[in-house]
Amino acid sequence: MFNIGDRVVYPMHGAGVIEAIEEREILGQRKQYYIMKMPIGDMKVMIPVDGVDDVGLRQVIPHDDMRRVLEVLAGERTKMSANWNRRYRANAEKLKSGNIFEVAEVVRNLTLREKEKGLSTGERKMLENARQILISEVVLASNIAEAEAHTLLDHAMGQ
After folding, report:
1. Which of 49, 63, 109, 151 could form a disulfide with 32 if both were Cys (CB 3.0 to 4.6 A apart)?
2. Are 106 and 90 in contact, with CB atoms under 8 Å apart?
3. What is the rounded distance in angstroms from the CA atom of residue 98 to the CA atom of residue 108?
4. CATH classification at residue 149
5. Does residue 1 belong to any structural domain of this protein?
């Protein structure tokens, strides 16, 4: 169970802070929901309390783990399929995992591929989404502004 004020990550959406725990009636069912405020985009997300395990809600990484995230970003590209469809599905699975290190891998690999060969519209959108997910967690884990997080990621990838 999470508490108000906890910094959490909702896979495929990013990191945020639990602002409230409220009971709501949706589609005729009363349930408790975490109300999560995202630091980027001023968006709020409602997550059923009884469904957190299903969606993979987890705590934001400790600040000490940020060095490892930056090392992943600075690392060598991992082998990816030449087939666009297989590559897309593999990257989508990494994003769904909610694991920040796998998200960082997707950002690194797609950024490098974009520089070398360019990306399809689908992969470009995936890169933007993965980068936003990563930025949101970096902001909360490091207590820095969004612009600083962008700079930190760019610097780690040598941009």
Report:
1. 49
2. no
3. 16
4. 1.20.58.1290
5. no
Phi, psi angles (nearest 5°) of residue 134: -65, -45
The residue type at 24: R
Query: Count of domains in the chain?
Result: 2
Residue 34 in any domain: the answer is yes
Looking at the fold, whether 129 and 51 belong to one and the same domain comes out as: no
User: Which helix (DSSP H) or strand (DSSP E) does residue 133 occupy?
Assistant: helix 121-142
Query: Within 13 Å and on the Cβ side, how many CA atoms surround 68?
Result: 11
pLDDT tens-digit series, residues 91-147: 999 999 999 999 999 999 999 999 888 888 999 999 999 999 999 999 999 999 999
Give the pTM.
0.90
Looking at the domain assignment, is residue 2 inside a domain? no
